[in-house]
Design a protein that fits this description.
The chain is mainly α. The protein contains 4 helices and no strands.
């Protein structure tokens, strides 16, 4: 039996994991916060994998993976490295932005053009 039958139920549980990780961060619970990274990032990666057949959903889910990785990198820096990982975290945030940017600036406009062409072809009478 699969614990999470829908992607939506996986996403909802993922929110719980993310909140727990960030609660550990804000409460300065170093070990618990670091332990929560694996299930939180793992669940995000699993959701992205399940969405891989729909490019829009996949790129948004992949952006979430990068977002949580950035967030976790930042947290580790604050906990153990005198807040010295912000530049690395910024790279992960940028990677997430590239994912959604690619979707909105490249894929979606191409789909719109393809949809408009298909609609035009469907309404154009045959000669």
């Amino acid at each position: 039996m699969q614990l999470f039958k829908t992607i939506r139920s996986s996403e909802n549980f993922h929110i719980v994991l993310w909140l727990l990780k960030d609660l550990c961060w804000v409460m300065d619970l170093h070990v618990a916060g670091v332990v929560m990274i694996a299930p939180t990032v793992g669940m995000a990666a699993w959701i992205a994998w399940r969405c891989r057949t729909e490019i829009g959903e996949f790129l948004h889910s992949l952006a979430v993976v990068f977002w949580i990785t950035a967030n976790s990198t930042w947290m580790i820096g604050e906990f153990f490295l005198n807040d010295g990982t912000r530049h690395l975290a910024a790279l992960f945030f940028a990677a997430g932005l590239l994912c959604v940017g690619w979707y909105y600036l490249v894929i979606l406009p191409r789909r719109g053009h393809a949809d408009a062409t298909a609609k035009k072809d469907a309404t154009t009478p045959a000669r």
